[in-house]
Inverse folding.
């Protein structure tokens, strides 16, 4: 699995940057081989990518040597992606899917030169095909299906539960007894490890014994056979579904098909509703609380995450849309129906290298979630859930929700303001001249510390004030000053934490300047108009990182030398990251993550240089 | 042990560190060793490291684990022949650690420390196991660095020279009678002439592991 996954990853980077510059768009086909059970797909449009970098340049990067090793199992030394016979005029689609019985992973791609393909995929053997025109090749783990120069490389793994269920069924139907000595009085762990005991006293063996008749399988031999048969049966089903019935994800989910029409270099698809349906973590709900599970399924119906990756001039954009069904959408839309708190912008300095704002209405979200979720829970005839529902309803009645949600309304902001020298104390050893008698002296010193600020919108400043007053009575480390509270040695046992209770915001910071000199905000030194507007207009979330500034101002003193070296190597190669979101309605929310940089180099080369720098640091300094 | 601790701590923290090694030697060869490690100037960095689960893929011990290891060492050393009054003070606010023990002879001290380190690290120290780093003939004290520590120092990769330059190592030898002479040019004699002190920074110590070597001759009895 791991090797397979690495192989899939190995294809991502090359394919992102590897299409032929002279490529012309052909009819889209490779995506029509995706199994409909795929719930996560990353589809790379090699045509649209149109190389910012040539294949010759790509294969010369140091990290590509490792990619080739992973991709070709290290058995075809000297071969590169260029030699792999892939058709870069076709999309490369990587997928993952899971049903209750099987897990599917793999990718689909076009084949330009089959001879070249099998020179690098040289461990695949021909397997008998049930269909005319469909060629099947297999290794121990993977199957490669090729038809009309389109390939589907797939790995099918039945779930452990499914294998066990089928194996047990056959095992007991044959009249066998339980294959494990679970009820031994003494644990047999040491005896298993002791080979001599194992051989001399077979009665202590907890594993099923091999039978004298080689035609009769023991439990684990039977289990292995079941696993192989289930794999083959599922492969036959997938072949029938895709190549006979013509059913695939492309025509099964029109949202995916629509997404592929976007003129993006990469497309991302995650069907969260089906993902949830197949989630192992919900087995308890599925088996013990089937009604509630069905309700949760309905809640998540229609929840799909769709994304586009664009490589633009000096810019990489990742645009994501989260679509919801009506029930889930109603909660999110209520949560995000919040008026932007402009007060926070006064506390973000214009020179801040990294900051975010988060703007939600927690009370409305709570009320809507209560309205949607409580009926689901109330219908369940389960003692534990009934008690939880009762507790929830009582709390809902007795708690002063207005006070609670006025104190913490849900909106917040955070900033990283670089590093500052903070005053701290150290002990020095001193010795007198007469006898070198030893003394300890406390002196002041300075230490570099990253400066962070976190602020929360509040309409009840009296509540945190009440808490702080009582805490101050218990500890001398908490002191009240004119505009702020100070908690000594709260940060890393060395630096104070300042709490500003402005009446509209509760601000926690280790920035003494902010507490002492800017308790009412930074004024003209706060964010400029353009940045304020961007944050204000950005739905429920906005994030900004000026990467060179952040790296320059990050205290490498608190990093290990190796991590400090990585930070240093990234300096001068990075740009700005901006995260924005749209307003949310009951149908969807959109996000956009933009990475921009300055410089004449192409976007592809810029990113590959970045990847290669990190690769070199990690491999040269393991 | 002191050198192992020095370089372990420097390696762990790459931080500004102050170390004091204070040997009091009586005329009969018995005495007291006091050893102090002061990381108070780097407590921000030490605290930030202790807040991590792991560093460079290795788990970062908790304060409780560090304390348990120190106390295990104390317990083992206290049981060694000729070693008594083993005491440790741990200050996790300023990160100052003080260790002291009495010994009946220089030989007992070295054997005791060597065996305790071997036990606590579950390793047999082979390199230079027969070498003694302190010797005392009643008039002359000769001190050097054990070969197994020298080997570790040579293997150590220097990663943060500036921090090491701010670190201080102080080595003091105290006696019951006046010092007649000493060889280490970095050394100073106390006004009462009964103690010799050598100070250097941890960077120079890393560059030259023989900086602390000294031969101190006392006045005749």
């Amino acid at each position: 699995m791991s090797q397979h996954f690495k192989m899939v990853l190995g294809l991502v980077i090359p394919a992102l940057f590897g299409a032929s510059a002279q490529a012309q768009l052909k009819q889209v086909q490779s995506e029509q081989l995706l199994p409909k059970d795929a719930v996560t797909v990353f589809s790379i449009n090699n045509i649209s990518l149109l190389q910012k970098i040539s294949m010759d340049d790509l294969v010369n990067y140091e990290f590509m040597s490792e990619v080739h090793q992973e991709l070709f199992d290290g058995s075809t030394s000297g071969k590169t992606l260029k030699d792999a016979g892939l058709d870069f005029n076709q999309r490369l689609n990587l997928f993952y899917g899971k049903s209750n019985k099987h897990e599917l992973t793999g990718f689909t791609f076009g084949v330009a030169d089959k001879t070249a393909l099998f020179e690098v995929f040289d461990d695949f053997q021909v397997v008998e095909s049930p269909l005319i025109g469909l060629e099947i090749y297999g290794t121990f783990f993977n199957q490669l299906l090729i038809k009309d120069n389109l390939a589907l490389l797939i790995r099918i793994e039945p779930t452990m539960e499914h294998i066990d269920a089928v194996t047990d069924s056959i095992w007991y139907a044959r009249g066998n007894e339980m294959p494990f000595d679970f009820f031994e009085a003494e644990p047999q762990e040491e005896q298993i490890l002791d080979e001599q005991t194992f051989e001399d006293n077979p009665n202590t063996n907890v594993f099923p014994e091999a039978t004298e008749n080689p035609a009769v399988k023991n439990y684990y031999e039977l289990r292995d056979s079941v696993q192989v048969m289930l794999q083959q049966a599922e492969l036959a089903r997938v072949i029938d579904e895709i190549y006979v019935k013509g059913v695939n994800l492309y025509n099964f989910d029109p949202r995916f098909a629509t997404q592929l029409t976007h003129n993006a270099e990469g497309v991302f698809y995650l069907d969260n509703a089906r993902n949830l349906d197949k989630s192992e973590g919900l087995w308890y709900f599925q088996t013990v609380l089937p009604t509630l599970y069905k309700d949760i399924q309905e809640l998540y119906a229609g929840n799909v995450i769709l994304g586009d990756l664009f490589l633009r001039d000096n810019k990489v954009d990742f645009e994501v849309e989260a679509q919801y069904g009506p029930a889930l959408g109603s909660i999110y839309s209520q949560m995000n129906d919040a008026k932007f708190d402009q007060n926070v912008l006064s506390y973000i300095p214009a020179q801040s290298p990294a900051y975010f704002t988060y703007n939600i209405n927690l009370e409305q979200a709570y009320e809507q979630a209560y309205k949607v979720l409580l009926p689901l829970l109330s219908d369940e005839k389960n003692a534990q859930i009934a008690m939880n529902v009762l507790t929830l309803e009582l709390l809902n009645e007795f708690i002063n929700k207005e006070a609670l949600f006025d104190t913490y309304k849900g909106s917040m902001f955070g900033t990283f303001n670089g590093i500052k020298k903070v005053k701290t104390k150290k002990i020095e050893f001193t010795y007198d001249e007469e006898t070198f008698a030893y003394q300890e002296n406390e002196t002041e010193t300075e230490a570099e510390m990253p400066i962070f600020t976190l602020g929360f919108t509040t309409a009840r400043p009296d509540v945190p004030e009440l808490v702080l007053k009582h805490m101050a009575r218990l500890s001398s480390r908490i002191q009240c000053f004119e505009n702020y509270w100070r908690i000594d040695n709260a940060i890393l046992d060395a630096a104070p934490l300042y709490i500003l209770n402005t009446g509209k915001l509760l601000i926690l910071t280790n920035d003494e300047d902010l507490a002492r000199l800017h308790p009412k905000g930074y004024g003209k030194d706060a964010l400029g108009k353009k940045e304020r507007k961007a944050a204000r207009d950005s739905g429920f979330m906005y994030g900004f990182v000026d990467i060179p500034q952040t790296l320059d101002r990050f205290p490498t003193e608190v990093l290990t030398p190796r991590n400090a070296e990585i930070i240093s190597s990234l300096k001068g190669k990075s740009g700005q990251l901006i995260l924005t979101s749209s307003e949310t309605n009951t149908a969807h929310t959109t996000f956009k993550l933009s990475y921009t940089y300055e410089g004449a180099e192409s976007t592809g080369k810029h990113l590959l240089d970045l990847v290669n720098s990190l690769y070199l640091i990690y491999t040269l300094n393991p | 042990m002191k050198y192992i601790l020095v370089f372990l701590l420097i390696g762990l923290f790459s931080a500004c560190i102050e170390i004091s090694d204070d040997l009091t030697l009586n005329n009969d060869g018995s005495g007291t060793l006091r050893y102090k490690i002061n990381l108070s100037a780097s407590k921000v960095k030490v605290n930030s490291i202790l807040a991590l689960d792991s560093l460079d893929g290795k788990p970062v011990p908790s304060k409780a684990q560090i304390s348990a290891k120190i106390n295990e060492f104390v317990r083992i050393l206290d049981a060694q022949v000729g070693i008594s009054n083993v005491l440790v003070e741990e200050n996790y606010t300023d990160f100052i650690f003080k260790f002291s023990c009495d010994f009946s002879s220089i030989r007992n001290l070295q054997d005791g420390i060597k065996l305790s380190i071997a036990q606590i690290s579950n390793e047999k120290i082979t390199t230079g196991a027969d070498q003694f780093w302190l010797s005392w003939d009643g008039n002359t004290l000769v001190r050097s660095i054990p070969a197994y520590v020298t080997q570790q120092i040579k293997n150590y990769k220097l990663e943060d020279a500036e921090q090491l330059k701010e670190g201080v190592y102080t080595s003091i030898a105290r006696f019951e009678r006046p010092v007649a002479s000493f060889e280490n040019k970095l050394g100073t004699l106390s006004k009462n002439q009964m103690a010799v002190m050598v100070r250097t920074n941890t960077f120079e110590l890393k560059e030259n592991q023989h900086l602390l070597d000294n031969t101190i001759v006392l006045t005749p009895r």
